[in-house]
Specification:
The complex is a heterodimer of chains A (299) and B (315). Chain A is mostly helical. Chain A has a single domain, classed as MetI-like (MetI-like fold). In chain A, 70% of the residues lie in helices and 0% in strands. Chain A is flat, with a radius of gyration of 25 Å. Chain B has 2 domains: 38 residues; 259 residues, MetI-like (MetI-like fold), CATH 1.10.3720.10. Chain B is 73% helix and 1% strand. In chain B, helix 3 packs across helix 12, helix 4 packs antiparallel against helix 9 and helix 4 crosses helix 11. Classes of the chains: A mainly alpha (299), B mainly alpha (315).
Chain lengths: 299, 315
């Protein structure tokens, strides 16, 4: 009996309990991976079936005539344009702000406050960014008298990108070893040369990865666009189109998913296919890239 | 950092170099201040835009659920109630699911590569745009759960939460899609905080004869609790502000109902639905609702950050 107590006993209550909780945890993990599998499978099947060359070149037809839904060209270009505008605004501001936090501030109240502000801004609901830009730009017609515009949509998205960019810059620069800075300053380089020539290039990979993920995230955002960029059925032909309503893949999915017509619903699936495939590709590649960087990082 | 700056100050430099340096420093300073300006700008703009509605309805806005642009009467109770109920209930489901998954990923039940795959699957789920989840919810999830809701109403109809005939789009569907969206947040933050618990604690617990799950429940989880709590609060903030998927599946009805099986409303779905075509005092009332949403999420977020700072692991 005494000998036996040294062996693993299946029926002991602690072992039974352990088995139970282990299977519960496995069960949780199984449920957790199901949504992604189901979502991606349905998008591949339902959206993939709609992919034709015309999809990329045609304008969408207004819902109502139950014939052909057309393509998603204006929305595709619109998403690219709006995301580019957002990046042009958010990346310089975010990288600059991140440089200040990581390189110049010395943990004083101001930098603490800004870091806190960055976290709070990251938690602001995305639709509030849309409401803010609506009040600031759309309703005041401050941009050459235009109301809903691709530019306003880009500004709304830039508010959502800003915290991500600042955070990744700040954290990326903090990982750069101080010895590099000392060496640069020691041979007589000034602070800004040190930052631009030494620390930023060293941290470039991690900053770029974070920024790209931020852009991918912004590309799928819908809430800030529905009453800033609104939607448009027409081709984007010139620069002045920036100041008119502009379609985007995300808003197209939203509008057409709620239409009662099958043709429009199919177009929404097709747009989802393109959006999800691009976002997942970016995500997976930056993950692999980050893992690769991790391995090759010098000590 | 301190050392670096003094080193730098003591150098003799040319005027131009000094100036460029100063300009560069001040530019980055200005850019980082922009965060604060945008944040305060958002709060002030939304507050001032809602002022008209605020002075007219006062706090009554929060407890009445009349929303009538014709009679110019506005109250956001249904939307505020919907926001709180959908976010809290979805969180209630997500917490055990997410923490259970995080334990699965951090323990060694299965080989490492399987856990890594599960981990990246959950994280990739966070990358799927909310509008796509909404589309999926309408065409795939809703038909899938339809029978189940009928069953729920038939046998649990005596509970007020299931007391109405299931509608095609309803609050319960919104809660389910919110669970899908919150799961990655809770899981990844819980996983990070579980990973930060030092190995010594686990070994000490095993050493005095505790079983694996005794160790998890009495040592590991308590040690990681503050991090998990902060993650849960961040998820709550996300849930309250989540717009697209919820708007597409909740049914958007301003009629108050206790039942989760009838269509509901949240503040963000109200904004998404009405902002585009609102005018007059309706706009101000919508800004008021937006202000309420912003305050709710700000409070939750600031509390989460305070929690992280106050109880961050000190091992």
């Amino acid at each position: 009996m005494i000998m036996n107590s040294l062996y693993y006993q299946k029926k002991l209550s602690r072992n039974v309990g352990d088995k139970f909780f282990t299977s519960l945890s496995v069960f949780c993990a199984l449920i957790a991976i199901l949504p992604l599998i189901f979502v991606v499978t349905y998008i591949l099947i339902k959206g993939g079936a709609q992919i034709t060359p015309e999809l990329f070149t045609l304008e969408p037809n207004p819902p109502g005539d139950d014939l052909d839904a057309g393509g998603i060209n204006p929305a595709l270009i619109g998403t690219l344009v709006i995301t580019t505008i957002a990046s042009i605004i958010a990346i310089p501001v975010g990288v600059g702000g991140g440089i200040y936090l990581a390189e110049y501030s010395n943990g004083g109240p101001f930098s603490k406050f800004i870091r806190f502000g960055v976290n709070v801004l990251a938690g602001v609901p995305s639709i509030i960014a849309g409401v803010f830009i609506y009040a600031l730009i759309v309703s005041t017609k401050i941009l050459f008298g235009s109301m809903y515009s691709g530019f306003a949509g880009g500004m709304a998205l830039s508010i959502l990108m800003l915290p991500t960019v600042i955070k990744t810059t700040d954290e990326g620069l903090k990982l750069v070893p101080n010895e590099l800075r000392y060496a640069s300053l020691g041979i007589g380089a000034s602070m800004y040369t040190t930052i631009l020539k030494i620390t930023l290039p060293t941290a470039f990979r991690s900053i770029a990865t974070g920024v790209v993920l931020g852009i991918a995230r912004a590309a799928g955002e819908t809430a800030p666009l529905i009453f800033t960029a609104l939607f448009s059925y027409y081709y984007i032909v010139g620069f002045e189109d920036l100041f008119y309503e502009m379609g985007s893949l995300a808003v197209l999915i939203y509008n057409f998913a709620l239409e009662p017509y099958d043709a429009q619903n199919k177009l929404a699936w097709a747009a989802s296919f393109i959006l999800v495939i691009s976002i997942l590709t970016v995500n997976i590649f930056s993950r692999i890239f980050a893992a690769f960087t991790e391995k090759t990082k010098r000590v | 950092m301190e050392e670096k700056l003094t080193l730098f100050k003591n150098r003799k430099r040319f005027g131009i170099e000094k100036n460029i340096d100063l300009i560069f420093k001040n530019t980055t300073l200005a850019l980082s201040s922009l965060v604060a300006i945008v944040l305060f700008g958002i709060i002030l703009v939304v507050f001032f835009q809602s002022f008209e509605s605020f002075s007219r309805y006062g706090l009554n806005f929060l407890v009445t659920s009349e929303w009538n642009p014709v009679k110019d009467e506005y109250g956001a109770f249904t939307a505020i109630y919907g926001t709180l109920v959908t976010s809290l209930l979805s969180l209630l489901i997500t917490i055990p699911l997410g923490v259970g998954t995080a334990i699965f990923i951090t323990e060694d039940f299965v080989p490492k590569f399987v856990r890594e795959i599960v981990g990246s699957f959950v994280e990739l789920l966070a990358a799927i745009p909310s509008v796509v989840l909404g589309l999926w919810a309408i065409f795939v999830m809703e038909p899938f759960f339809r029978e189940f809701f009928v069953f729920l109403h038939k046998f649990f109809g005596w509970i007020p939460l299931f007391s109405s005939e299931p509608a095609g789009r309803n609050s319960l569907l919104a809660i389910i899609i919110l669970v899908v969206m919150l799961l990655p947040i809770v899981t990844s933050i819980a996983r990070d905080s579980l990973n930060q618990v030092p190995k010594k604690l686990r070994n000490a617990s095993y050493g005095i004869g505790a079983s694996r799950w005794k160790t998890i429940f009495s040592v590991i989880l308590p040690a990681a609790l503050s991090g998990i709590m902060a993650g849960v609060l961040l998820a709550l903030g996300r849930a309250m502000g989540e717009t697209m998927a919820v708007t597409m599946i909740i049914g958007n009805s301003n009629v108050f109902s206790w039942s989760l099986l009838s269509p509901g409303y949240t503040i963000s779905s109200m904004l998404a639905n009405q902002f585009g075509e609102a005018d007059g005092s309706q706009v101000s009332s919508l800004f008021y609702a937006a202000f309420v949403l912003m305050i709710l999420s700000l409070v939750v977020n600031i509390f989460a950050q305070w929690l992280v700072k106050k109880f961050s692991l000190k091992y």
